[in-house]
Model the fold of this input.
Amino acid sequence: MSSSTIVSLPDQSTARVPKMNFISKENGLLSWLLTGDHKRIAILYLVSITFFFFIGGALAGLIRLELLTPQSDLMATDTYNKVFTMHGIIMIFFFLVPSVPATLGNFFIPMMIGAKDLALPKINLLSWYLYIAAGILALYSMMTGGVDTGWTFTTPLSTHYLNTNVVSTGLAIFIAGFSSIFTGLNFIVTIHKMRCPGMTWFRMPLFVWAHYAASILMVLGTPVVAIALVLVVLERVAGIGVFDPTKGGDPLLFQHLFWFYSHPAVYIMILPGMGVISETISTFSRKRVFGYTAVAFSSVAIAVFGFFVWAHHMFIMGISNYSMLVFSLLTMLVAVPSAIKIFNWAFTLYKGSITFETPMLYTFGFMGLFTIGGLTGVFLGTSGTDIHLTETYFIVAHFHFVMVGGMLMAFLAGIHFWWPKMTGRMYPEKISQFAAVVTFIGFNFTFFPQFILGTLGMPRRYASYPPEFQILNVFSTAGATILGVGYLLPLLYLTWSLKYGEIAGENPWQATGLEWQTQSPPLTENFPAIPIMDHEAYDYEWLEGQKEKVASVG
Amino acid sequence: MSDSQVVTGNEVVVHDAAEGAHHEHLPYQRHHFETYAQQSDATNFAMWLFLLTEIMFFGGLFTAYLIYRNWYYPAFVVASHQLDVVWGTLNTLVLIISSFTMAMGVWCAETRRRRGLVISLSLTFILGLAFLGIKSIEWGEKIEKHHVPGFHYSLQTFLDPASDPKVHKEYPKDQPLRLDMARHTEIYFFLYFAMTGMHALHMVIGVGILVFMIVRARAGAYTTGHVTFVENFGLYWHFVDIIWIYLFALLYLISRHP
Done:
């Protein structure tokens, strides 16, 4: 067997965007709509989830505007109910769940394990079409009257007491669920069966491990919420009685089925983000991730524990004291693998050569905000404090610290980190560093006051509130404005950089992952030939060896 | 860096690009797989994972069944007497035989017997239709008796068993239920329709795919060594069969233990 070396670390100043790449290979709309290329599907997803993110964001803006004053004056109270419901549904099912997996995961998992594509390209494309169909149905439901159940579809409110578009929205989420199942299924098969020679499980980047764990949750959890929503639809349409106490049905059963998915769903959202953080923190401190194995297994541990904590959403819904005790304990156990990650990332920084490029700024944002979000989660997992704090703004703040402060920061870190690989061009560094700082400041202004509001007892999901809470709400709304600017900036300068950005070259970060050892943007087949992996993940000494080799040849 | 391994003198080594040309590429091998074995491994694995999601999907309904059966056992027993065990057993037999013909189909595909494959798939198709036919007769009976939850549901037969002479003769020991317990029969029938309906939906999809497969098999598509599709469909068919066996025991045979 003959072998050759493809690794080279070319000088960035002389780099050119390669003529032949996955974008330039074919032209025309159909070549995108019928593509099997995981990279093109990732781009399709990226455009679609960005669209939904800004719709969800606009709804969030409306919520904050309404809450500027204690009275409900900007919109009627039932309109407000619809706005916060649609904000939740769009952000969770159409942005957060597919955000990192369907874009960055789709693009980079095959590249990181040295494969030409995901195992099932047609299923991958199908998942995007399902996502789009679901998105259109959700938008249709919103335009034709909306839905006001809250994103949790609580029964019997959703089945008996409301006359809004519960059925069509439920079906939209049902379809979006299958899109997510297919993504997860594809990842698991790919990671098991498509690794290149030498790519053992413990040489895979932690990004891949995190997606593996999240995929387990997608595959096992999502079908349960699908059937729960089918039951809600049947209950509404036919009055079958399964959640109707007057016929002997039990509304609590819906809560069990719904949270059996929807709690693991928060790990579906956060785990891929954690995968991004492992990559950026290692690259920008020039060190192997401390405790690689522990971080890898902590992802799987989060996935496994995540399946056994769902009833902590039901402490005030009349579950037994024994359930409360057990689920409270199990909930706190999830903090252990999460803490393992945070500590190991912190130790990775120790004695590293840290630089502060934009992805790293977002990464620091993630670490701080996720830690606060995670620790306040322990307050809510404790049944005593939960009964006091649940259904207040404390829970809103906790959730947004984890999802917006954590996940969205990680998503933006990942987008900036891999932007040069995806497009072949750098984003503008200074303005993006500015945007990262603006996002961090805006975020804290928006959501930190909500912790205080929650402990003072301001309930969530109301359009009006007692006047003494106004000052903190004004803070929050002002912060949301800053946050909005922080999110608009990347949209603008990333679009700008598509044409005018500095040419990135193969490996602008001098990173070790296989995805960096090929041209940017990559070929349709990713690599000129299938690579053979013969070093550990994040092996910077190996990379130094490569540089010397290039230098001596050059 | 306590756990990093120091590896020196490494390089990323790749297959020479020209070497790829010497690989034997079977015509049905997709370009992104290195070998055909990898392709069939991956697709089989994907099918098993898909069946896992199906188990979780039905799992929600089974959970609901478990809870309500424990709470409303008397209603479940009496309501299950409305089902005809003869039809149910016949349908179980039909499905088990169809699983056998499906297994024969997979074997025929593996041993490249085109005629045998077409016959096996056609028999599976006919048995699948037979199952759906019998099922619709059973559903028709429920509709006639107003036992469809949500649509003019009638408690008559549970409050007064004698009003339904056929069932009363078969199960003379059934006592009239009190009104509150009788109302819970609606939950049983909801579960009956949801579970058998979801199962029948899977059967309909399966029968549809069978038509597609029969057409392709006649053209010789599966008897050239590429049997993954037939194999995976076989897995799906057996899975749907197994679900039915559970449904039969849970819905028809509630009171049949000593």
About this structure: The mean pLDDT of chain B is 87. The first helix of chain B runs from residue 36 to 71.
